[in-house]
Design goal:
Radius of gyration: 17 Å
Number of helices: 7
Number of strands: 2
CATH superfamily: Winged helix-like DNA-binding domain superfamily/Winged helix DNA-binding domain
CATH topology: Arc Repressor Mutant, subunit A
CATH architecture: Orthogonal Bundle
Distance between the termini: 50 Å
Length: 172
């Protein structure tokens, strides 16, 4: 098997996973794009500022402000005073926490069927290979945060790319 065939197969699986994640997000909150990721990132509970969220999501400042405004209008996010008084801190409301939980459960439920053709041993081998692949990805904290923007921190142990979402900027 050539590396190009393997790369092609991985690309197809990657698209299947991405499509399933998008469908789960639409089902959970009638939104796709970076809106679900924003809810997940804010839900880590570190009180990110608009600028920190912007950096993780890779959005423009105005795009992030509009996104946060929508989440606030939907009753999913609240703005609080930040630690340095110049920035706001974003936190989920109880409704936002419920939607985040539904979103993350739906994400895993959408991906899990792709693994069912594999035996337990094959699933373990794949997990090891995925861990190794993730270890080889960019090592900067912003890159790791971007990769983890939809991760379920309740099931991810021994993370190969631990990201510190607190280091993603300081201003609003």
């Amino acid at each position: 098997m050539t590396i190009d065939r393997t790369a092609n197969l991985l690309g197809a699986v990657g698209l299947a996973v991405a499509d399933r994640i998008e469908e789960a997000a639409i089902e959970a909150m009638n939104r796709a794009g970076e809106t679900p990721a924003a809810l997940v990132v804010i839900g880590y509970g570190l009180g990110p500022s608009n600028d920190q969220l912007r950096r993780v999501l890779g959005l423009s400042h105005p795009g992030t402000v509009r996104l946060v405004d929508r989440l606030v209008a939907d009753g999913l996010v609240e703005r609080h005073e930040g630690a340095d008084k110049r920035a706001i801190a974003l936190h989920l409301t109880k409704a936002g926490q419920r939607v985040r939980e539904t979103l993350l459960k739906g994400r895993l439920a959408a991906i899990r069927p792709l693994l069912t053709p594999l035996t337990k041993s094959e699933q373990d081998a794949l997990a090891g290979l995925l861990h190794k692949l993730l270890l080889s990805l960019p090592a900067s904290d912003p890159d790791r945060c971007r990769l983890c923007r939809l991760c379920d921190d309740s099931v991810c142990f021994d993370c190969p790319i631990p990201a510190d979402f607190r280091e993603q900027g300081t201003s609003s």
